[in-house]
Amino acid sequence: MDERTIEVLADAEAVALRGAELIADCVRRGVAERGSFSLALSGGRTPQHMIELVSRQDVPWKSVTVFQVDERIAPYGDAHRNLTTLEHALPEAAIVSMPVEDDDLFAAADRYAALLPRSLDLVHLGLGADGHTASLVPGCAALGIRDRDVAISIEYHGRRRMTLTYPAIDRAREALFVVIGEDKAEALAQLMAGDLSMPAAHVRTPRQTVLADQEAASGLYS
Predict the structure, then answer these.
(1) I need a surface site. Which of 113, 118, 125, 195 has the fewest CB within 10 A?
(2) Beta bridge partners of 37
(3) Domain boundaries of the chain, sorted by first residue
């Protein structure tokens, strides 16, 4: 990892807007330099508004491929699927969905890995209060995987998930962490301190930007 920088903004709305602007700017620069762009997006409640705001930005969607960072094992159209949010928020985007409806999830994970570019241009990540990112959760065997880019997690909050592993995340050009809420304050302080007892601190993408609201950042000043 070369650098992990943080921007602290006033509130969740400011974080969502700044995140949308950063993603759009990164996409535009990448398309201008390389002709195409690969963007991996995480799910969850925190980034939903940010992803909606990205759709309102000036983004050359015809040159962008959107991948999923993680996905719950659930039927197509399920309200808990990250894909449901992505398809609603980004109707113009070419989304490569994780095949979580397959009977053989491990074979499906390998097939998804084969669709990934060698290096994703930008990976958007969240941060759980327990220190997880993507669906790399504490106690999961996927934390130790170094020879595969996609894995299946243990059950977490009632669902197993398909997730990118550290190798796929680490090879990305950039990573963007989006962290909102007072319940994330301790985890964010650990992340910025490089506390390797938490999964998120093991991300080694060369360039990492963290966006946080004042509540999430409150632990940095205690």
Answers:
(1) 118
(2) 64
(3) 3-221
Instruction: Check if the beta carbon of residue 180 is closer than 8 Å to that of residue 15.
Output: yes
pLDDT digits 0-9 by tens, 8-34: 999 999 999 999 999 999 999 999 999
Structural element, H or E, at residue 191: helix 185-193
pTM higher than the cut 0.85: yes
Q: Which tokens go with 83?
A: 């894909």
Topology at the third CATH level for domain 3-221? Rossmann fold (3.40.50)
Paired tokens of 193? 């301190």
Q: What are phi and psi of 25, to 5 degrees?
A: -65, -40
- The CA distance from 187 to 59, in Å, is 32
State residue 116 phi and psi, 5-degree precision. -70, 145
H or E element in which residue 79 lies: none
Q: Is the CB of residue 190 less than 8 Å from the CB of residue 131?
A: yes
Q: What tokens appear for 165 in the block?
A: 């592993």
**Residue 124 exposed, middle or buried by CB count within 10 Å (0-12, 13-18, 19+):** buried
